[in-house]
Specification:
Helices cover about 35% and strands about 20% of the residues. By secondary structure, the protein is an alpha/beta fold. It folds into 2 domains: about 5-80 and about 160-235, Rossmann fold, CATH 3.40.50; about 85-155, Hypothetical Protein Ta0175, Chain: A, domain 2. The strands form 2 sheets. An 8-stranded mixed β-sheet has the order 5-4-3-2-1-9-10-11, sandwiched between helices. A 3-stranded antiparallel β-sheet has the order 6-8-7. Magnesium ion (MG) binds near residues 11 and 148.
């Protein structure tokens, strides 16, 4: 029996790069079933704050690819950082080196609202050679990285969507088998690899050839793109 739904945000809960009415239908469907939704996203801490303050049904959001959890505690929004202060500082130091090495590659605007990772817009890296130079530099400095639908994200320390979800479910006394995860991209792979009930929405087909780990179930067809697939699948099993 599913007691909690976990989901990536961009491309999974958004449709054509935006929020659409289907997202609100999904929230009200889950609210009627009394099943919480926890967004597990590469977006920033400040985005987590935005989501909690604008969507009262959400109580917790896992952000920055698993680097932090933002929660509603009564009237207040609190944050829990899942890496050490040392790693936070090492990342900050690396960002200075990155700016010196790649003065023409700006950090994403939302990096200002990030704490445990930083990002570069993928559209600034369309030159494949530049992308590889950055990858080499990240390897050289032992900085971890991954790509989402929109960003190249990088961070220090052991951070992953799966690790954060595992920690979160333990805090809530929930078993992994009581959750279901939806995703659509490369940065969902730690969930696809280790989380039992993982579902890929139909647009995952765009990255299928680059996925090393695939979700257990892959939805098909235009009617199962992004949040349409999430809602249709939940309706079919709940
Ligand atoms: Mg995504």
């Amino acid at each position: 029996m599913i007691k909690i739904v976990l989901s990536d945000f961009d491309g999974t809960l958004t449709f054509k790069e935006g929020l659409s009415p289907i997202f609100f239908d999904l929230l009200s469907f889950l609210e009627k079933k009394n099943i919480p939704l926890v967004i597990v996203t590469g977006r920033s801490l400040s985005w987590g704050h935005f989501l909690l303050t604008h969507f009262p049904y959400l109580k917790d959001v896992i952000v920055e690819g698993g680097g932090a959890i933002v929660s509603r505690q009564g009237k207040f929004i609190t944050e829990e950082c899942l890496i050490s202060q040392n790693e936070v500082e090492r990342l900050s130091e690396f960002c200075h080196q990155f700016k010196v090495k790649f003065p023409n590659v700006p950090l994403s605007v939302d990096s200002f609202g990030r704490k445990t990772d930083r990002a570069v817009e993928l559209h600034d890296l369309q030159d494949g050679t530049l992308f590889h130079h950055i990858e080499d530099f990240l390897h050289e400095k032992k900085i971890n990285f991954s790509t989402s639908n929109v960003h190249l994200n990088f961070w220090c320390g052991e951070v992953s969507k799966f690790k954060a979800v595992e920690y979160y479910l333990k805090q809530k006394n929930l078993a992994e088998s009581e959750g279901m995860f939806f995703g659509d991209s490369l940065n969902d792979q730690t969930m696809f690899k280790d989380f039992h009930n993982s579902v890929g929405v139909a647009n995952i087909s765009e990255v299928m050839d680059r996925l090393i780990f695939k979700p257990k179930l892959i939805l098909q067809g235009a009617e199962n793109i992004g949040p349409h697939g999430v809602l249709a699948h939940l309706k079919s099993i709940l």
